[in-house]
């Protein structure tokens, strides 16, 4: 039985190169950033527009470093491990009602998300506290029905936990490197030099009409 269920109308997920030295400063010391080649790790940027959730409709931004997952006996192999170093939402309610045993690093101000679509591409701009945070453009490819499993880590002062998240819906993903990410300096970046992040994506995915579930939560 899932712990929580979220239905989304649209989503964008891009992965981008950043220096491993920078990635290690963003993640908890118990976790190891995944390298695409020596000295280069992966930043995952995800923006979703949730129509339904236990907390009502809201939009969400997750900035995460891709890390090695923990595989437990009898557990399905996640496609990736993610350590969010910043999470933002358009609603204060989700930040107040989140599972207390899963201490995600929420930015405590509402975000503004502006989605646009057309000519085979999808764009989103994110503003936090009146300050531009990022602009991301991703391109559509062939669409298909897919499910993806990710392990998401959250570690706070009193401990941490890992959740398994399943995302099922219409996917259009590819590795053509046609999109673009523009990160702007902002306190949410926690000291990351945004100029060191590669603007061309390793992988870009557009999502539509799907469901995300939190399937399990385990203490670390």
What do these coordinates show?
The protein is mainly beta and 220 residues long. The chain has one domain (4-219): Acetoacetate decarboxylase-like. Helices cover 6% and strands 58% of the residues. The strands form 2 sheets. A 7-stranded mixed β-barrel has the order 1-3-4-5-9-10-12. 36% of the residues are buried.
Characterize this entry briefly.
With 220 residues, the chain is mostly beta strands. The protein contains two helices and twelve strands.
Strand content: over 45%
Distance between the termini: 21 Å
Low-confidence stretches: none
The CATH class label is Mainly Beta
β-strand number: 12
Rounded to an integer, what's the Rg over CA atoms? 16 Å
Element order, helices and strands?
EHEEEEHEEEEEEE
Average pLDDT number: 94
Q: What does the main sheet amount to?
A: 7 strands, mixed, barrel
CATH architecture: Beta Barrel
Number of helices: 2
CATH H-level superfamily title: Acetoacetate decarboxylase-like
Identify the strand order in the major beta sheet.
Answer: 1-3-4-5-9-10-12
Helix content: under 10%
CATH-assigned fold name: Acetoacetate decarboxylase-like
What would you call the shape? globular
How would the blueprint of this fold be written?
Elements: E1 4-19, H1 20-26, E2 35-37, E3 40-52, E4 58-67, E5 80-89, H2 92-97, E6 111-118, E7 121-128, E8 131-139, E9 144-156, E10 159-174, E11 180-183, E12 203-219
Parallel strand pairs: 5-9
Antiparallel strand pairs: 1-3, 1-12, 2-3, 3-4, 4-5, 6-7, 7-8, 8-11, 9-10, 10-12
């Amino acid at each position: 039985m899932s712990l929580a269920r979220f239905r989304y109308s649209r989503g964008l997920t891009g992965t981008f190169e950043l220096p491993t030295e920078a990635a290690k400063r963003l993640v908890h010391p118990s976790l190891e950033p995944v390298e695409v080649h020596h000295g280069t790790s992966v930043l995952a940027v995800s923006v979703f527009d949730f129509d339904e959730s236990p907390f009502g409709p809201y939009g969400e931004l997750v900035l995460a470093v891709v890390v090695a997952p923990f595989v437990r006996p009898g557990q399905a192999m996640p496609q990736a491990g993610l350590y969010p170093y910043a999470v933002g939402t358009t609603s204060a309610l989700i930040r107040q009602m989140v599972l207390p045993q899963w201490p995600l690093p929420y930015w405590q101000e509402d975000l503004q998300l502006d989605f646009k679509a057309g000519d085979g591409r999808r764009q989103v701009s994110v503003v936090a506290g009146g300050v531009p945070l990022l602009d991301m453009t991703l391109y559509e490819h062939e669409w298909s029905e897919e499910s993806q499993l990710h392990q998401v880590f959250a570690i706070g002062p009193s401990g941490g936990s890992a959740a398994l998240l399943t995302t099922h819906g219409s996917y259009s993903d590819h590795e053509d490197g046609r999109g673009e990410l523009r990160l702007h300096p902002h306190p949410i970046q926690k000291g990351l030099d945004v100029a060191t992040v590669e603007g061309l994506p390793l992988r870009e995915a557009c999502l539509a009409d799907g469901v995300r579930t939190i399937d399990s939560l385990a203490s670390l």
